[in-house]
Design a protein that fits this description.
The complex is a heterodimer.
Chain A lengths: L17 H27 L10 H13 L8 H30 L10 H31 L9 H27 L9 H12 L4 H25 L7 H11 L38 H9 L5 H5 L1 H4 L6 H17 L16 H5 L6 H5 L6 H15 L4 H13 L11 H9 L13 E4 L2 H5 L1 H17 L3 E2 L10 H6 L2 H17 L4 E4 L2 H10 L8 E4 H10 L13 E3 L13 H11 L33 H11 L4 E4 L2 H14 L6 E4 H9 L1
Parallel strand pairs in A: 1-2, 1-3, 3-4, 5-6, 6-7
Helix pairs in contact in A: 1-7, 1-9, 2-8, 3-4, 4-5, 5-6, 5-7, 8-9, 12-15, 19-27, 23-24, 24-27, 25-26
Chain B lengths: L3 E4 L2 E3 L20 E3 L1 H17 L3 E7 L4 H10 L3 E6 L8 H15 L4 E5 L10 H9 L3 E11 L2 E8 L2 E8 L2 E5 L11 H6 L5 E3 L37 H14 L6
Parallel strand pairs in B: 1-4, 1-6, 4-5, 5-11, 6-10, 7-10
Antiparallel strand pairs in B: 2-3, 7-8, 8-9
Helix pairs in contact in B: 3-4
The chains are: A mainly alpha, B alpha/beta.
The complex binds flavin-adenine dinucleotide and iron/sulfur cluster (2 copies).
The site of one iron/sulfur cluster has 16 residues of chain A, from helix 11, helix 14 and helix 15.
Amino acid sequence: MSSDIPVRETYRLMPPGTDVIMYIVLIPFAALFLYGIYRRVRVYGVEWPELFRDFPTRMGNLVRYALLQRKVVREKTAGAMHLLIYSGIIALLIATTLVFIDYDILRNFNQSILRGQFYLFYEAIFDFMGLLLLAGLAILLYRRFIARERRLRWKDEYLLIFLGLFFLGITGYILEGLRLYIAPRPWGSWSFVGKAVSDLFAAFSLDLGAALGAYRALWWAHALVTFTMVALLPYSSLLHVLATFGNAYFSALRDPNPGKMPTPFRIDQLDPETAEIKLGARSVDDFSWRQRLGLDACTDCGRCEAACPAFASGTPLSPRMIVQKLREEMWYSKDKMDGGARDLFAAGIIEEDEVWACTTCAACVEACPVLISPLEYILEMRRALTLEGKLDKRKTTMLTNLSRLYNPYGLPQHEREQFLQELRSMGVKTLAENPEAEYLYWIGCASSYDARSREIVRSMVKILQAAGVCFAILGEEELCTGDPARRIGEEGRFQELALTNIELFKNYNVRKILTHCPHCFNTFKNEYPDLGGNYTVIHHTQLIGELLRSGRIKPKRPLAERLTLHDSCYLGRINGIIEEPRMIINSVAGDRFVEMQRIGRRSFCCGAGGANYWYEVKRENRESVIRLNEAMNTGASTMVVECPYCLQMFNDATRIVGAEEKIKLKDISEVVAETLE
Amino acid sequence: MVDIIVCLKQTADVNQVRPHPETLEPQLGQAPRKISDFDLNALEEALRIKEKHGGRVVAVCVGHDIQQLLIREALAMGADEAYVVSDPRLEKADGLVTAETLAALIKKIGKWDLILCGEASLDESAYQTGPRLAEIFNIPHITYAVRAELEDGGIKVWKAMEGGIHVVKASLPAVLAVGLEINTPRLPSLLMIRAASRKPIHEVKLSELGLSEEQLTPAVETLQVKALKVERRRITLEGEPEELAQKLAEILVQEGLVKK
Ligand SMILES: Cc1cc2nc3c(=O)[nH]c(=O)nc-3n(C[C@H](O)[C@H](O)[C@H](O)COP(=O)(O)OP(=O)(O)OC[C@H]3O[C@@H](n4cnc5c(N)ncnc54)[C@H](O)[C@@H]3O)c2cc1C
Ligand code: SF4
Ligand code: SF4
């Protein structure tokens, strides 16, 4: 069938009947593929009724993050690589599908789409898309062997996948070249790469018989490699192709804010006689089906690891390894038919210090291109460890302090008497004395018990009084919000504290809470609502920003120092408060404000979060020291923070590196208060 | 399989005891109560033995005004049941009375192989109860234990002494008094404490124990307990390091703190 109209000549050079044989050969591969998918779905234990809830949001996530890969492309090289390979493969898939429609369906009705103009475009476009695939693979080689990116892990499986893709890309062009060499067509040059290859064969005057033999052999090889890769998709890392779509779709089941931990029960609604005592995860079976599905979406890309402060500090934790190890365990334990997954800690799969090293900074959540939250797995494992209660001395002490003294410092309530006395002499009233106050100013444990952090309160009081804001404190009645208990996994203790506070707030009719601690802020704002506490929660950066904007406070004495700003995880990345502190610093320091490398959502943790302030994990370096060095590299003489724990961590860091003289640490309220004098 | 009795004392949380500003007497009633620290170590050790060898762990507690919640904490840690005697008469109990009461209570429980105590209690720190218990039962006791292992039907114990560690063995039944170094007690989570209400707490009346008046009369009478009032002198010395050292030495000699 050779005519003047360009047309796709499927099976042209293959012996008759090849199409039938090919379909027969395809059957076992397809069966293997389907069986694999079936197995995966069984392993997840998908709860189908949840399938279509919240459909628009879920589809939105699927389109944005899986189809359009909005997070993948945030990184230049890695993003470009993936986009090229991804679009190359998708294009080839579309090309093959068109052939299928053309040959296996339309041909039976004496119809054809792959002809004429459209066919010529088809050839040209897909020749081009194949090049994209090869370009992507070239970047892959570059990243692996020339740039040698540290976060890229080696598995033999990855080599095979690379070779498979490379083989498909190359043999596609060779087949095209051979075809055009054996049976030249006037429109051949539309397949510009194939044509070039055929010209090459012509230059060597390849024997036509040999060319035909090679063509047929290669044709089958190409088909078999394709089938194999598809068949092995559910059994290999290639599964991420599908799991990513699933994970993006179902990620809506997880709270979008990584600062809000799920509330598995309400302690005040539990019947102690009957309630099941189960919390957190000790085995992959203990995770939800969505979380298991999420594990399969992991591509081992290592972006989470590269962003992780605990990893950078040489602790045993890497969020990527957490996800990868859980994924392997899910495959392994479920493959063995001996029932039930293993205890992750007893089996030595996860080391306890891996989960304790996590500062819950959420950098991994931010970094993951496929919407996995390594953090959520870590927190569930912590809950299981804490439920069992075999914690080390420091953690035990902190939790005991919370239950006996209602603060993690373990200082008796009367320790703060003198400080409260001082505040009273500054004119600060308690809610009991001034029940009409607009704001409850929540001091927080750090500033109640730590001498340096008390300075923040003094500055805030100055600012609030200068602006004429009507506020009151709780005084002796203030307890911990419960954040350290929750982050360490002691859900019951957290809820006990939270419920006590909520009751107290109710008695005082509290509506607006002002706090300078991002952890208190996050807990009140994101976590109290689950327990029935709904308030307008304001961080002091927000209020100060508002007071400056509205002119209720005016900086009188401009600052002379160079300032840089550290975004606290729980304020910046987790709660999106990034502009406010910058606006404040700009208005008091103007052009003497210099930014660090990593800011805003990409800021780096001080190391205190997730209750890490209260215990030690073996490590080679400290997050606070790494970050302090970044701050000093800007040439700033003052590092401004927005969190009392950041303040303490960096203060310690200056002592560790002996930089007390070089860089000063100030809370943002202190900076503002200074300019008011 | 060993069945273990653990003696738990409820004491005032001494870190929260404040002396009365005038009389300087410790205001014990105002401080929250807790299980004496050493006793949590004893319980933890009992639980570890149970995890390894099987058996039951029974907590016993005698005193005045015993708080149920604290007993439940012990049950949440893993004790199987608890026996409690709560009676105002025990408020003034000393080591003698406590040991007699505990012994009478333990006799009611039935079979046991080992009694674990703290080496002393957090509030009164008398180092009495364990050895006295052993005397009443006429069985061996080992104190200051920092490590313990069951071995050939007996118990091998590492005992912290001033000169070093003594390793000793005793046959069972025996009394073991443990120190803080022996382990880190597990912390029962609140969820566990709630669930522990399913475990039995047996309340026994003091009168049911058949103790004589003599057994219930403390051998020691505490006349007075007072906090020390320490005032710093706040002496500031100024000058060059050499001079300062000279002046400081003179003061120390003057005060009789250092002999010339
Ligand atoms: C430094 C010091 C030295 C003393 N030396 C002497 C002395 O040499 N001779 C003397 O006669 N008196 C002495 N006393 C005083 C007197 O013995 C104590 O007041 C008395 O022993 C009180 O016992 P305790 O509460 O301290 O318990 P301890 O005997 O210290 O308690 C040890 C363990 O017994 C168990 N136990 C104790 N009470 C209970 C309870 N109510 N329920 C369950 N288990 C319990 C616990 O496991 C506890 O850890 C001394 C006191 C002090 C402070
Ligand atoms: S939350 Fe932060 S510390 Fe924890 S694993 Fe993720 S990046 Fe690392
Ligand atoms: S969890 Fe996400 S960021 Fe981390 S390795 Fe897996 S895919 Fe990459």
